[in-house]
Design goal:
The chain has a single domain, classed as Carbon-nitrogen hydrolase (Nitrilase/N-carbamoyl-D-aminoacid amidohydrolase, 4-Layer Sandwich), CATH 3.60.110. It is about 25% helix and about 25% strand. It is an alpha/beta fold. Bound molecules: D-[(amino)carbonyl]phenylalanine (ING).
Length: about 300
């Protein structure tokens, strides 16, 4: 029995600063309904899907950002998604800013099964950007100010007939992210991203080269770990001069982009993902047990920064 999941990458257009949770969730629900109408098994929503990407704002008092966080999940705003999922037997993954009862702040993604049960939670490990206001930047990227690094590692879960994992945005640029999940047999990595089209520091990277980096990262992660990768953007202009790239896509275990977004708006990118197509590479080129030489990999976990040889 082939294990085919029809997956919808639910790319989201911009969330504006004044958009209410209710207005935003209505858009997500509309996409979930459309995905159900297209017989999808699973809908993947993006990073901070419920709010504008608020790390572009600076506040002396970090607590000023707390209204952008969710204290409970599900909650009144997101309950319509869970209710529709449960009534219509469709799974979903959702990214949001999490404020725990202990007062800890994480950039979080959850995995919800077809009975609307939260079966998995991931908290973003690789926080890009900076913690203090930097005048030299055209716009701020203050994830290190408002979030803690994730404390859950890179777990995977057996659900919907496969082995699934999640990561978030900048995590997709780091091979360690996929490899830790690959070492757990992951067959589908779901991730959302809110990635500015321009570098806040200027420099040479154009929107074109940044889109190349975006896709390259996911294609490499997919191929080198023989897994499907679903990458979902929040796209478009969330504020004047603050543009997020689109390019949502579904990548197969051979690293091929098999479906991708055409717009920078709310858009479903749908593909039938046969999880069994992971097997060939997992049993040949990337048979980790047969080929990896861990005795030589020590520096990957013993070192943080690079130490070039002396001049
Ligand atoms: N955004 C960006 C990302 O990693 C970034 C930040 C962009 C870092 C380009 C490096 C280069 O896609 C988030 N939210 O992580």
């Amino acid at each position: 029995m082939p294990r085919v999941l029809r997956i919808a990458a639910a790319q989201q257009g911009p969330n504006l600063e004044n958009d209410s949770r209710q207005v935003i969730v209505a858009r997500l629900l509309e996409m979930m309904k459309q995905a159900k109408a297209d017989n999808c098994d699973l809908v993947v929503f993006t990073e901070t899907a419920l709010t504008t990407f608020f790390p572009r704002f600076y506040a002396d008092d970090r607590a000023e950002m707390d209204p952008w966080f969710e204290r409970d999940m599900p909650n009144d705003a997101t309950r319509p998604l869970f209710d529709f999922a449960s009534e219509n037997k469709i799974g979903f993954s959702l990214g949001y800013a999490e404020l725990t009862p202990e007062g800890r702040h994480f950039n979080t993604q959850i995995l919800v099964d077809k009975d609307a049960k939260i079966v998995g939670k991931y908290r973003k490990v690789h926080l890009p950007g900076h913690a203090e206001y930097e005048d030299r930047r055209a716009f701020q990227h203050l994830e290190k100010r408002y979030f803690e690094p994730g404390d859950l590692g890179f777990p995977v879960w057996r659900t919907m007939g496969g082995v699934m994992g999640m990561c978030i945005c900048n995590d997709r640029r780091w091979p360690e992210t996929y490899r830790v999940m690959g070492l757990q047999g992951v067959e589908l990595v779901m991730l959302g991203y809110n990635t500015p089209s321009l570098n806040g520091l200027g420099g040479t990277d154009t929107p074109e080269i940044r889109m190349h980096h975006n896709h390259l990262s996911m294609q490499a992660g997919a191929y080198q770990n023989a897994t499907w990768v679903v990458g979902v953007a929040k796209a478009g202009e969330e504020a004047p001069g603050y543009h997020l790239m689109g390019g949502s896509c579904i990548v197969d275990p051979d690293g091929r982009i098999v479906a991708r977004a055409e717009t920078e708006d709310d858009e479903l990118v749908i593909h039938d993902c046969d999880l069994d197509t992971c097997k060939f590479l997992k049993q040949s080129t990337f048979d980790f047990a047969a080929h990896r030489r861990t005795e030589h990999y020590g520096p990957i976990v013993e070192q943080t920064g690079a130490t070039p040889p002396p001049e």
